[in-house]
Amino acid sequence: MGSKNRLVAVLEIGSTGIRLLVAEIHPDGRWQALDRAGKPVALGRDVFTTGHVSRESFLECISVIKNFREFLRSWEISDADIRVIATSALRVARNRDIFVDRVRLETGLIPVIVEGIEENRLMYLAVRFALKNDLPLFWRANSMILEMGGGSTEIMLLRRGQMVAAHSLKLGTLLIDQALRTGPSQIQERYVTENIRNTSDILSSDLDLARVRTFVISGANAAIAADQVGANMNEHCGIITREAFIEFVRKVQSYTLEECMEKLRMPFWEAEIFIPGLLVYRMLLEKTGAAHVVVPRISIREGLLIDLARGVDPALQEEFFSQILASAVNVGRKYHIDEVHCRHVARLCMILFDALTLEHGMNRRERMMLEVAALVHEIGMFIKASGHNLHGQYIIANSEVFGLQREEMDVIGNVIRYHRGNGPSSADIDYISLQRAERILVLKMASILRVADALDRGHSQHIKRISVEKKGETMILHTEGSRDLSLELVGLEEKGGLFQDVFGYKIVVS
Questions:
Q1: Which helix or strand (DSSP H or E) is residue 40 part of?
Q2: What does the H/E/C string look like for 189-258?
Q3: For all residues of the chain together, what is the average pLDDT?
Q4: What is the pTM of this model?
């Protein structure tokens, strides 16, 4: 008997409303949206003004979630198949933990706070699905993907289909709207212009915006623009010419709230933040060389649905890991890493990792994390050669790599810290603050990285390739390349101790 279709629901607690998506997932990974609903809540107004979710918003949110939960009973969807996610407003709310606990107690559902970088990942999945193969330019040329919410804007930059950078910026429609209410239109335009200038400076350090050829925007305001002046690219995606989009924004910029509601047939809660989002999109578009605006009519709710439907799709997972690695390399390039050395060390790390599968017990994602650490292990040299492992940990702690959670970045930062010098100790706050399982990961990854780094001690790639042979308590590294390995042997003498402590093997080079 084959598996049955599965009914699931995704509930998103956003800055301006709570939105629901009901879908059916087929055993082969296909899915179909069956129902959608949304209710306004003033969560963002609260949080971005006071830093807290107010008692009134607490009660309003819980009431809406309870109503949606009852509605889902009519679909016979179990609580186990309901995913509740929360975005920027709850991310920054000081009483977010109390809110999550209260929702759990009152409704039985547990909201998961989606961090900005995870929101980027879900948005990437959704955009990739919506574009299908209908826009080859997206994979060939430089692209920008934006989704503007009430409290943040998620931005991804891709160079010929490869991820360059992902940013979660504190630039949201509600935040802008609050500022825009305080002055005449000239001040409003200037406020947005200043924000866009600052944002453009951040983005231009990653990719020349003038070379961006595909401009992808998502959200309710973008969908309205596509409906008004665009055309359908496929059932999930609209497309607007650059000129038509800019003209549409200039036209609606003078609309009152009432005119937005009447002429564009939108509810009040969308109308009041409609224009700020479009202004940001227009100003960023004008800094690019894109001839069209692409509008996927989907959101992170669909991104999460794709995640649920695909499960562990090996092909999708490998493509995603390649995007994470591309993003990591671009972070390294900003700090002028020796890319040839770092890539070589990463390759040696992967050989050692694969040879020690039984000993380390790490999974495919942890293999990718080790590769990221190897690719940027010398990033701290940008600050100073002396103590560059400590400087590297600091840079990673203050950087974003597409697709990696903050906890994973903390592990990678610690691996970089211990790729040289003394091993971890109970006096190292950043290390002991990790969970026990994460500390063990750091030990395993750092010990492998230390060996791989020692094998290219002179940054000259004398050792071209290695193969691994295990004999009793000895691990023999058979090398191809230069016969003079004196520098590498000194490096192994310095760095091999942690590896022997962790895995029990003494390393011998042949």
A1: strand 31-40
A2: HHHHHHHHHHHHHHHHCCCCHHHEEEEEEECHHHHHHHHHHCEEEECCEEEEEHHHHHHHHHHHCCCCHH
A3: 90
A4: 0.83
